[in-house]
Amino acid sequence: KNTGELRSTIVTTRNHIDRLKNALEKTTSTSTKAELAAQISELEKVASSTEAFIKANESKFSLLGWLSKFLSR
After folding, report:
1. Cβ(50)–Cβ(10) under 8 Å?
2. Mean pLDDT across 6-21
3. CA 40 from chain center: how many Å?
4. pLDDT for residue 73 is more than 60
């Protein structure tokens, strides 16, 4: 469940990155371009680190996760 929420957050973050990139292409202000580029860079770092976290932890056995699945049946 939590992995699904993280993946959903990544998709949302990627959508925000795409919107910021579109705004970056349309703006003519140098200061606005710099701010948008900084925001895009930070969001890409967050998405990348979240994806790395998911990959590192999705294959690990979770006793608590297993127990909650077992009890919910």
Report:
1. yes
2. 93
3. 12
4. yes
H or E stretch at 70: helix 63-72
CA dihedral 46, 50, 51, 55 (to 10 degrees): 150
Residue-wise DSSP of 29-69: -HHHHHHHHHHHHHHHHHHHHHHHHHHHHTTS--HHHHHHH
What digits encode the pLDDT tens for the residues 14-55?
A: 999 999 999 999 999 999 999 999 999 999 999 999 898 888
Spatial CA neighbour of 17 closest among 48, 58, 56, 59: 48
Residue 68 vs residue 3, higher pLDDT: 3
User: Quick one: which of 14, 3, 7 has its CA closest to 43?
Assistant: 14
CB neighbourhood size of 46 (10 A): 14
